[in-house]
Design a protein that fits this description.
2 copies of one chain form a homodimer.
Chain A (H helix, E strand, L loop, with lengths): L6 H6 L14 H11 L11 E6 L3 H25 L7 H14 L6 E8 L13 H13 L3 E5 L6 H8 L5 E10 L9 E2 L6 E3 L16 E2 L3
Parallel strand pairs in A: 5-7
Antiparallel strand pairs in A: 1-2, 2-4, 3-4
Helix pairs in contact in A: 2-5, 3-4, 3-6
């Protein structure tokens, strides 16, 4: 299950996982995942990130029901806006995975709220002290044979969520992360060619050394 | 130099590197680092992150001089505010490394501006689509025997920087990352005990399974 995933390989093969087996996540796996997450850098090493784990405690159940409702509503909006096909194309399969994810949200093994303890007014760059830790979390999950996905779909119920979980003012809910044993598997992620994402010496100036390794899978930008 | 760093080990041992050997970074290393960076997740897989690499091109030199000035000014402000000791304590050594870093900023082998192409108004959560890629960048650097550090010290010269590098409106400069071959080494990072950073079922409720592995090095919160 675990094996030894190399660092570069892990970066290139950590996919968004939205379909989970019902198996619970062990305490040992949770400890490793959150140890990895909390090793992330932050501004002046202030470590303002906090992870609130929701499994089957009394408040967790209430919070997860709120989130399930919000996720299903968010998916309705997205599905209507993005007009996904019903077929077996890649977008069709993505749509099916998203629908199954929100329909079964209350059964996701572990739900995590990634929080940020603010020390100044909200601003666009504050995520530099919480999203690296979220990425570490997803990578550590990958290393332990788990998988997950980061979403913002808690937004519609954030006020109720804060009340249920006693999240104080001055703390931002930066993301909701679903976590568990993947039903499918990890594997190479699909991205735009690296030359479209990396420039040298000026905006949109090509970086001659920017090359994708053989076998890379692409999306269109 | 490279070896095969494991994924979990990489997460726990990627330190902020601010002292660099003068050796240039090879094209192969740059390709691997930016391939890893751009494998990161982003909202709806939009991939709005762009990396602008500054080495020794004509605009790069001008931009780096601007940044050097801004970094030295930012350090002056921080040094005055934080009152670092001059001795050989950990804080004293940190202060010395920071001073050397800003004094020699123009000699940092590679400077990277991490940018975010916005599709809506600026907001506190937008970093979820750029800082995971920055963290991947630093981890990929670690895997290749390189090191780096992410800072916000470009802020004071951002307008001039945008003009020199032709960064369009609607694109945010999310971070400046310094990159090169470390003068010192990587190694276990120092953080707060994981129990102070992870809760279960409610804010500040302890997570009984949250344990640091033996030998973990701590900071005080």
């Amino acid at each position: 299950m675990t094996g030894e995933v190399g660092l570069l390989e892990g970066l290139a093969t950590t996919r968004a996982i939205r379909r989970f087996r019902p198996d619970p996540v062990s305490d040992g796996d949770l400890a490793a995942v959150f140890f990895g997450a909390t090793r992330a850098p932050s501004g002046s090493n202030r470590q303002p990130f906090r992870f609130l784990v929701l499994r089957d405690g009394p408040r967790a159940r209430e919070a997860r029901a709120l989130l399930g409702r919000a996720f299903r509503e968010a998916w309705q909006v997205k599905a209507a806006a993005d007009d996904y096909p019903e077929d077996d194309s890649r977008r069709g399969r993505t749509a099916r995975a998203l629908r199954q994810f929100v329909e079964g949200f209350e059964h996701v093994p572990v739900v995590v709220l990634a929080c940020l303890v603010r020390y100044r007014a909200p601003q666009p760059t504050e995520g530099a002290s919480v999203y690296p830790a979220c990425q570490n979390l997803l990578l550590a999950a990958r290393a332990r044979g788990l998988g997950g996905v980061l979403t913002m779909w808690h937004a519609a119920v954030e006020d109720e969520l804060r009340a249920v979980l006693r999240i104080p003012d001055g703390v931002a809910v930066a993301a909701t992360i679903a976590l568990g044993h993947p039903e499918g598997g990890h594997g190479p992620v699909r991205r735009r060619p690296v030359r479209e994402l990396v420039y040298e010496d000026g905006w949109e100036q090509p970086a001659p050394w920017a090359e994708d390794p053989p076998g890379t899978r692409f999306t269109r930008g």
